[in-house]
Design goal:
With 487 residues, this protein is α/β, with parallel strands linked by helices. The chain is built from 15 helices and 22 strands.
Length: 487
């Protein structure tokens, strides 16, 4: 690797339970690899069902003790803000390990993902202090509503943005007074495990935060079906989300599911073309396209279709694929050999279906050891093709022409998914008309990926159930309790 000097040793990862790093009860381990080289990075504790039960039991006892759930909110806030401070003090270390484990460019990890993780903690820590409890007067009586922490919370995190996604969930759950058990993805566990060390240094009581590494089939299923668990928040693939929901149903555990996406990125003829091209590039090639919010279906109005395609392909050719630790790299490696094959298979399927290949469509010849795939462009795609309907989760947009505004809306909604969408136009009324008719949870006009943490986040249809963000997170991670008293 020719990138930044590694000042941070990559350490083997253990389970973090009750404030301590411990081996799996079985003693088993598995290796995590660097996607850019496919060489071993570290050994990781291979947790199992009994480890998950132990962590959940610790979390339940800690919650019942009141050491965290009963702590004054100002003190909880202070500890969580300290976690935010420590994340930023260690931003280079966390970002470097995240880049090695995920394969993403260091400039994204250090410039956005890890600072955003610190912001997550600081935002919810501060917001918790100002949550308002409702008060209702009646004739002779008074009712008021308390928002009590729900209890043990299971957080199951995906591999594409592990540290940021983990902190987005954990910061809100902890700020509400819950104890949490976290399972990072087995592909990318290393940065997540670092949060235990940070939590200890910040003064978080033992047992409040627990982190388990291991398979979804054992650890994940236990976290989603244990009767002590009172909330589950899952981010990942839609079919896995269905399994989580089925497991939770036996004990009526409330779930929040952020699932897959195949978001429409609509470019109208009156859009600022250069802005639309640059934004569309960002929306599909950021994080190697391994992002649920990706604008992977690019719908372009016929009047500008050829011009957009020319400009888009020209911009794609300038994307630098290479060593993720190199500051100049724009696109790194896909997370695994298996996922690399999946992405390439989809490209071949698209060509067989009749899509045309404008650029890319193969592994990077100069980087044979890693899971590097060229930024790819499929065009003249029909919205009914598999590549237009199924989530590829890689650097492969499909470009589809449309005639009218109504055509664009119909195509955008012709999908099982409904996570996000983008509209590029200089007509404000059109922007409002179109966004109001697209069935998705998040929509952008002339921009992409900007988020205010106060706003609700979540998808429609197969893209998920529930909303988190701001007050919506506190609504999910708490139980509303109505108390009525005689005056």
């Amino acid at each position: 690797m020719k990138g930044i000097v590694a000042n941070h040793a990559v350490q083997d990862a253990k389970l973090f339970i009750n404030g301590e790093y411990v081996d799996a009860l079985s003693g088993e381990i598995f290796d995590t690899t660097n996607p850019a080289t496919n060489k071993r990075l570290a050994s990781v504790a291979n947790g199992g069902i009994e480890d998950a039960k132990r962590a959940i039991d610790v979390a339940k006892k800690t919650f019942a003790s009141g050491i965290w759930s009963g702590m004054p909110v100002e003190e909880r806030s202070r500890i969580l803000c300290k976690i935010a401070d420590l994340i930023m003090e260690n931003v280079d270390k966390i970002a470097y390990i995240e880049t090695l484990d995920v394969g993403k460019p260091i400039k994204e990890s250090r410039g956005f993902d890890i600072p955003r993780a610190a912001s997550n903690f600081r935002f919810f820590a501060e917001m918790a202090k100002y949550m308002v409890h409702e008060h209702f007067d009646m004739s002779g009586h008074m009712s008021y509503v308390q928002y009590a922490p729900a209890g043990v919370t299971s957080l199951i995190i995906p591999w594409n943005l592990p540290f940021m996604q983990m902190t987005w969930k954990a910061s809100a759950a902890l700020a509400a007074g819950n104890t949490v058990v976290i399972k990072p993805a087995s592909y990318t566990p290393l940065s997540a495990v670092l949060l235990g060390e940070i939590a200890n240094e910040a003064g978080l009581p033992p047992g409040v935060l627990n982190i388990l590494t291991g398979p979804g089939s054992t650890v994940g299923n236990t976290m989603a079906s244990h009767p002590f668990v009172r909330r589950i928040s899952f981010v990942g693939e839609s079919n896995t989300g269905k399994t989580v929901m089925k497991n939770a149903a036996d004990h009526l555990i409330p779930v929040s599911l952020e699932l897959g996406g195949k978001s429409a990125n609509i470019v109208f003829s009156d859009a600022d073309l250069d802005e639309a091209v640059a934004g569309s590039i960002e929306a599909i090639y950021r994080n190697q396209g391994e992002i649920c919010l990706a604008g992977s279906r690019i719908l372009v109005q016929e009047e500008i279709y050829d011009l957009f395609l020319d400009k888009f392909v020209c911009a794609v050719k300038k994307i630098k694929v290479g060593d993720p630790t190199d500051e100049s790299t724009d696109m790194g490696a896909l997370v695994s050999k298996e996922h690399l094959k999946t992405v390439d298979d989809y490209v071949q399927i698209g060509i067989e279906e009749g899509a045309k290949l404008a650029y890319g469509g193969k592994t990077v010849a100069d980087l044979p050891e890693g899971n590097f795939y060229e930024p790819t462009v499929l065009y003249d795609v029909d919205n009914k093709m598999r590549v237009a309907q199924e989530e590829i989760f890689g650097p492969v947009p499909v470009i589809i022409p449309f005639k009218t505004e109504m055509d664009a809306i119909q195509m955008a909604n012709d999908s099982i998914y409904g996570l996000a969408g983008v509209v590029w136009t200089n007509d404000l009324r059109r922007a409002q008309r179109v966004t109001s008719q697209i069935h998705a949870g998040l929509l952008w006009i002339n921009c992409w990926y900007y988020r205010d943490l106060r706003t609700p986040f979540g998808g429609a249809k197969a893209s998920g159930i529930g909303r988190e963000g701001g007050r919506h997170s506190f609504d999910f991670y708490t139980e509303a309790k109505t108390i009525t008293m005689k005056k």
